[in-house]
TrEMBL record:
This is tRNA (guanine-N(7)-)-methyltransferase. Substrate binds at K147, D179, T216, R217, Y218, E219. One of its GO terms (molecular function) is tRNA (guanine(46)-N7)-methyltransferase activity. Keywords: Methyltransferase, S-adenosyl-L-methionine, Transferase, tRNA processing. Belongs to the class I-like SAM-binding methyltransferase superfamily. TrmB family. It comes from Alloyangia mangrovi. Catalyzes the formation of N(7)-methylguanine at position 46 (m7G46) in tRNA.
């Protein structure tokens, strides 16, 4: 969520997009009330962490490798990764509260325990992640902001990529899935500038999904509407 510049030391940021949609179901309200606090990664927002102290990921996940999903949508991919890779700890960031509520229901159903959930802007999370602490990051079907004047709002700008690169370990993997050709263009143009190399060696490397991929509801919508998914894999130099 947006931090206020009324507080000295608090980063001011425009927040783009909505934080709540249709009315939540009673069960979803229950998930938020009963589960969200227990799954918190700790004090991320400036208001509760004014000294901007780094999170203790070692204590949080018991020394497991740590992955980050930026904007998890409805949570299908996040829960799938947690269930498929129980040896890692995963943090998911998503400011859209309806998506957070959907995720919490999926966590209950799957019974995964290696997840933390931050219901806010991933930029706030970058403020409290130690340098070179992440082993992998995911960006799946981000908001395309199709109008040219809005392209600066896309995640694949240096404003976002530089702190992500700082938080990733050398050799860490950054995955991007999108069905928007111009988003592919901007991703391939901007991500290498932040210190990443694209790992594709042939067409199959961006046409075929990863072995542990699960098709999300956003991807299914794209396929129904005739758009082609692209799966881009980068490695931090």
């Amino acid at each position: 969520m947006t931090s206020s510049n009324k507080h000295p030391g608090a980063p001011w940021r425009n927040f783009y997009g909505r934080v709540k949609g249709k009315t939540l179901r009673p069960s979803q309200e229950t998930y938020l009330e009963e589960d969200l606090a227990k799954l918190s990664p700790g004090a991320v927002d400036w208001e509760v962490n004014p000294e901007r102290e780094n999170l203790d990921l070692e204590a949080m996940f018991g020394g497991k490798p740590v992955w980050l999903e930026i904007g998890f949508g409805g949570g299908e991919h996040l829960v799938h990764q947690a269930a498929t890779h129980p040896h890692v700890g995963i943090i998911g960031c998503e400011p859209y509260i309806n998506g957070v509520a959907m995720l919490l229901g999926k966590i209950r159903e799957a019974g995964v325990e290696n997840l933390k959930v931050y219901p806010g802007d991933a930029r706030n999370m970058f403020d409290v992640l130690p340098d070179e602490s992440l082993d992998k990051a995911f960006l799946n079907y981000p908001d395309p902001w199709p109008k040219t004047r809005h392209h600066r709002r896309r995640f694949v700008t240096q404003e976002h990529l530089e702190p992500l690169a700082r938080a990733l370990k050398p050799g860490a993997e950054f995955r991007v899935a999108t069905d928007i050709p111009d988003y592919v263009r901007q991703t391939l143009q901007e991500v290498p500038k932040a210190g990443f190399e694209w790992l594709a060696e042939g067409p199959g490397d961006w046409r075929e999904p990863w072995d542990d991929w699960i098709s999300t509801r956003y991807e299914q919508k794209a396929l129904r509407e005739g758009r082609t998914p692209h799966y881009l894999t980068f490695r931090k130099r």
